[in-house]
Specification:
By secondary structure, the protein is an all-alpha fold. The chain is about 70% helix and about 0% strand. It has seven helices and no strands.
């Protein structure tokens, strides 16, 4: 996908377009290796959850598959925690916020899980 987008932005017809500010930022993202590493990190962490949502959206019994994918989602997120909290990929965490995923967990569940 990255190669196709890179080829598109380097074509003469694309360079002749009058781009607004947001489009220019999108072009910069396409050429940014850190952006692609961040995208990969997020997709690696949430892919099992996306598969589980696909089963939830279907009209067939799949509770065992959803349970299995939820287990894999937990593992994928735990394996990706260091990358998800990497400030070089996702920016610094504000002083008033707790560390990355802990803050998100508190927002979703209303508490921070003590034992993991």
């Amino acid at each position: 996908m990255k190669d196709a987008l890179t080829a598109t932005i380097h074509q003469l017809k694309f360079r002749e377009l009058d781009l607004n500010g947001r489009a220019k930022l999108a072009v910069k993202d396409i050429e940014d290796k850190t952006f692609w590493k961040a995208i990969y990190t997020i997709l690696h962490a949430v892919f099992p959850a996306l598969c589980a949502l696909q089963f939830c959206d279907s009209n067939t019994p799949a509770m065992d598959k959803i349970y299995h994918l939820c287990f894999h989602t937990t593992n994928a997120i735990e394996l990706s925690i260091d990358l998800l909290n990497d400030e070089s990929l996702f920016g610094p965490i504000a002083e008033h916020e707790s560390v990355g995923l802990d803050r998100e967990e508190e927002e979703v569940y209303g508490f921070i899980a003590v034992d993991r």
